[in-house]
Amino acid sequence: MVYSGPDVIFRQIDEHTWEGNGHLCYNESIYIVEGSERALLIDAGTKIANLDEIVAGITEKPVTLVATHVHPDHTGSAVNLFDEIWINAADMVNVESIMKDYPGRIRYLSDGQVFDLGDREIEVIFTPGHTPGSTTFFDRKAGYGFSGDAFGSTNLLLSTNFSTLICTTSRIAEYMEKYGITMLYPGHYHGDNPETLQRVRDLNRMAREVLSGEREGKYEEGMLGLNAAVTDFGVTIRYNYPGGVK
Prior knowledge:
Elements: E1 3-4, E2 8-14, E3 17-22, E4 29-34, E5 39-42, H1 51-58, E6 63-66, E7 84-87, H2 92-98, E8 105-108, E9 114-116, E10 121-126, E11 135-139, E12 144-148, E13 155-157, H3 162-179, E14 183-186, H4 197-212, E15 218-219, E16 228-232, E17 235-239
Parallel strand pairs: 5-6, 6-7, 7-8, 12-14, 13-17
Antiparallel strand pairs: 1-2, 2-3, 3-4, 4-5, 9-10, 10-11, 11-12, 15-16, 16-17
């Protein structure tokens, strides 16, 4: 453990990568990814006082803030401590309610964009499903990525539809196989729910079976107004019926 405070605990993943877990929303995860010249801060948690100072105590490199998606447990009040944030423009509808008071500059990510941190490159891949603008950040050389809630931090809350999820999981399964990606660090509960290539394939299978009618969900009120769920392979997909099926 490299930092412990009332709002967040940081642990070291490897020599130049750290994970923070907040205490307000299912151990929401944030990540510091450091290169020789710069560092990325991936997500900012729910409400972490002095996050900018905490991060500066872990890395001396200048920090760029990026978001896996715009939900309040990932882009909470701590974003106001940073001059700019990079997001997927497809989540702008959420910005208007969740980040409406953000005083800094909002910049837009591009699919396939690369952040060159100096001797370390992080690739941006859009992974819509959880939200329209969900995004995963890949370090091909290290063999892992940072996926936020795109592949279900225990539960996958699907605010789009199963067709979108099929496209995303098909693309990412192929990407992970091609580049030897073995692990996706999730947006909550890291350590309890590792996200692997098999997880991505399982989600793809579940989505296809729901869409084809082979698998039926059950009515179950959940977060974000979602009213149906299917469970298998250790993950629950919560979705809106009937609008979120097709």
